[in-house]
Design a protein that fits this description.
Rossmann fold; 434 Repressor (Amino-terminal Domain); LacI/GalR-like_sensor; alpha/beta; Lambda_DNA-bd_dom_sf; about 325 residues; 6-stranded mixed β-sheet; 6-stranded parallel β-sheet; single chain; DNA binding; transcription regulation
């Protein structure tokens, strides 16, 4: 479905101009030719206003289920932005939705969710949790994980590429002593039939082996939180040989690492270079601004919504896995040595 942005691009005018023309703003000072061109393009693209969309009766309701707690979501903009992108698409398409946390579903009556036509599941889920979701709907799209790919749709990002790009960049600056700070992965029971791989850590290990410089004492693992980033970096700074650079698997962890480095009297990037992962809004405002891998969370949410609606409306049987690209955003937290 066409958006105001699409029309603005085709008409070669600003988004605000298109919006005001489509809303019949008589105070807008534009030529009649421009007004007619915008209206003509909107008609050709079958543009439907938000007001008209809201007037339609929705036949669908989806569940947006988070595997983590509300507190964790609020502390990590990565997850919050994914959910908000999904909710935005629901509102645009007049699709009913229920935003839920996994713990609530396990303690609630399944009858309360009998109206769900599909589920978008954000995060990592255990086997019993997936079975619980299946009780609510057979139409499930996972974001950030892809369990049982032969059965469920999923939307993930190219973590291996992002990690490799980060490590290549640090190496190009002369860094060979590179540490890793990331999250622990709790293995699933082998009977689950699920495989959970930490691609950021795996890529780091492969890279360091390739340059013949892998050292187990340079690998630190905890949770994707600023608190653990802080604690793990403090531990790293007690090493006899401190790496000249760190690849950190999430921006919230990098924020904590910044604090630990500065408290210890070191500076970034003069003493230690840092590369993060996610590109949360705060990253560009750190001092120095954080070089990090950008994950397009809005696009993840939008893509998951589209995949789910396709599954529901078209009754597609074959599952689909969508791998979205990431991009290294170079700022000021790395130095050539």
């Amino acid at each position: 479905m066409a958006t105001i942005k699409d029309i603005a691009k085709a008409a070669e005018v600003s988004i605000s101009t298109v919006s005001r023309i489509l809303n019949l703003d008589k105070t807008l000072n534009v030529s009649e030719d421009t007004r007619k061109r915008v209206l003509s393009i909107a008609e050709e693209m079958n543009y439907v206003t938000i007001k008209e969309r809201k007037g339609k009766v929705s036949n669908y309701t989806i569940g947006i289920v988070c595997s983590f707690t509300e507190t964790k979501e609020l502390s990590d903009p990565y997850f919050l932005s994914i959910r908000m992108a999904i909710e935005k698409r629901c509102l645009e398409e007049n699709i009913g939705f229920k935003s839920l946390y996994l713990s609530k579903i396990f303690n609630d009556d399944l009858y309360n969710y009998k109206d769900l036509n599909g589920i978008i599941a954000i995060g990592i889920f255990q086997k019993d949790e997936i079975l619980k979701l299946k009780d609510l709907s057979e139409n499930i799209v996972f974001i950030d994980s892809s369990p049982e790919e032969w059965e469920f749709d999923s939307v993930v990002v190219d973590l291996k590429y992002g990690a490799k790009k980060s490590l290549d960049y640090l190496y190009s600056l002369g860094h060979k002593n590179i540490g890793y700070i990331g999250a622990k992965v709790t293995p699933h029971n082998s009977n689950d039939g699920l495989e959970l791989i930490n691609y950021r850590e795996l890529t780091y290990i492969e890279f360091m082996n390739k340059i013949n410089n892998l050292k187990e004492e340079w690998i630190f693992k905890g949770n994707f939180t600023p608190e653990d980033g802080y604690a793990l970096m403090k531990k790293a700074l007690t090493l006899k040989e401190i790496p000249s650079a760190f690849f950190i698997a999430s921006d919230p962890m990098a924020i904590g690492a910044y604090k630990a480095i500065q408290e210890a009297g070191y500076t970034i990037p003069e003493d230690i270079s840092i590369v993060g992962f996610d590109d949360i809004p705060t990253a560009q405002y750190l001092s120095p601004s954080l070089t990090t891998v950008k994950v397009y969370t809005d696009f993840m949410g939008e893509t998951a919504f589209n995949v789910l609606m396709e599954r529901i409306k078209d009754e597609r049987l074959l599952s689909k896995k969508v791998v979205l690209p990431v991009n290294l955003v170079i700022r000021d937290s790395c130095k050539s040595i």
